[in-house]
Write a structure and sequence with these properties.
Elements: E1 2-8, E2 21-27, E3 35-44, H1 48-51, E4 72-80, E5 90-94, E6 100-104, E7 109-111, H2 127-140, E8 147-150, H3 156-167, E9 171-176, H4 179-188, E10 193-196, H5 203-210, E11 215-220, H6 224-231, E12 234-242, H7 262-267, E13 271-274, H8 284-296, E14 304-308, H9 313-321, E15 328-332
Parallel strand pairs: 8-9, 8-11, 9-10, 11-12, 12-13, 14-15
Antiparallel strand pairs: 1-2, 3-4, 3-6, 3-15, 4-5, 5-7
Helix pairs in contact: 2-3, 2-8, 5-6
This protein binds NADP nicotinamide-adenine-dinucleotide phosphate.
NADP nicotinamide-adenine-dinucleotide phosphate is lined by residues 46-48, 128, 131, 152, 154-158, 176-177, 181, 221-222, 243-244, 246-247, 275-277, 320-321, 323, 325.
């Protein structure tokens, strides 16, 4: 049996472009014991995939030139040589950018069939929202009356952070790029204020206007200048949760320097803490249960960008990195 896959043909130096990938036909390997053959239905498109194209990714194994692009997704079992996995079961795991994928069941998560859209398992009930919920639960702790800022606020993680913080009674401000995203945040998702970082010459001044009493928590998905601007309005004893630094994902060759604002972190008693969701896997089930409750009660609205067709996966990843999408980006295969 042959299947279509998307391979990397050139490593990016700086920005990623879709022409660095190409579709190929490949033979599907025979199943070994403990493996299933999946027909891939949805591919998750995520910022960490940009890092997989570097020589030494922070997360996961690097993708070599000529190899199929790595990526997580949901597939339906077509054949099984694993006990307790049957034809028709749905599974989430590392499937790669291909139509059919042979995978060991050890790394798979079973998807319980439900009336909710399958894509919820990648977004509002999946990794991004679990990241948001656990980040707030373990480090952020927003409480009623506090002021919370989140960057990349219209994205998969950010849109969940804002809505969950709001459900906990906080005042929520989002930073995002463009008027369409600002309107989504304020008019649909119930953010109290939103700032368009692409339109503001002085982001710190714009933040001071919408947070006149300062920030208590900054959930950082972006890093660099956005982190600087957030520091400038952070209250004494404020918290900063470092979740991502997408502003520097293309700067493969730029070495980290020591922390800036070092003296202020001490003098103002700030707590700045990195967060990696995989450290909290023992609490994923608890997080998912809480997210189901938030979704069912209407306090957490799903936001998605759906792109059709395996061949559009490179465009989907580049679009995500360039800020063209809102919410959770996924590719739906025919
Ligand atoms: N620590 C963890 O365990 C963990 C887990 C999951 C995700 N993450 C991180 O969380 C962040 C959000 O992930 P996500 O999946 O929800 O992605 P996302 O926010 O849905 O998509 C990425 C967004 O980043 C923004 N962006 C890109 N380049 C930017 C730049 N130079 N400056 C400012 N904004 C920029 C764009 O939005 P705009 O249009 O608003 O610019 C883009 O839409 C990423 O940094 C990701 O790596 C961390």
């Amino acid at each position: 049996m042959q299947t279509e896959a998307i391979t990397l043909i050139r490593k990016p130096i700086g920005a990623l472009t879709p022409d660095m990938f190409e579709p190929v036909m490949q033979a599907v390997p025979e199943l070994a014991d403990g493996q299933v053959l999946l027909r891939v239905k949805l591919l998750s498109i995520d910022p960490y995939q940009r890092g997989l194209l570097d020589e030494s990714p922070m997360t996961g194994a690097p993708v070599a030139v000529g190899a199929v692009m790595s990526g997580r997704g949901i597939g339906e079992v077509l054949q099984s040589r694993a006990p307790s996995w049957d034809v028709g079961d749905l599974a989430l795991g590392e499937v790669g950018w291909r139509e059919h994928s042979v995978v060991p069941v050890a790394g798979l998560q079973r998807i319980v069939k439900s009336p909710m859209p399958l894509s919820h398992n990648l977004g509002v009930l999946g990794f991004p929202a679990i990241t948001a919920w656990l980040g707030l639960e373990t480090i952020g702790f927003p409480t009623a009356g506090e002021c919370v800022l989140v960057s990349s606020a219209a994205g998969a993680v950010g849109s969940a952070v804002g809505q969950i913080a709001k459900a906990r009674g906080a005042r929520v401000i989002g930073i995002a790029g463009g008027t369409r995203k600002l309107s989504l945040l304020r008019d649909t998702l119930g953010f109290d204020a939103a700032v368009d970082y692409r339109a503001e010459r002085d982001l710190a001044a714009a933040l001071k206007l919408v947070a006149p009493n300062g920030l208590d928590l900054y959930f950082d998905n972006v890093g660099e200048q956005m982190l600087d601007a957030a520091f400038s309005v952070l209250n004494n004893a404020g918290r900063v949760l470092l979740c991502g630094h997408i502003a520097s994902y293309d700067d493969t060759f730029k070495a980290d320097t020591g922390p800036r604002h070092y003296r202020e972190i001490m003098n103002r008693r700030w707590r700045v803490q990195g967060f990696v969701v995989r450290d909290h896997m023992a609490r994923f089930a608890e997080a998912r249960k809480a997210l189901v409750d938030l979704v069912e009660s209407g306090r957490l609205q799903p936001v998605v960008t759906r792109i059709e067709g395996l061949r559009n996966a490179p465009v989907a990843l580049c679009g995500l990195l360039n800020g063209h999408h809102v919410g959770k980006t996924f590719v739906e295969l025919a």
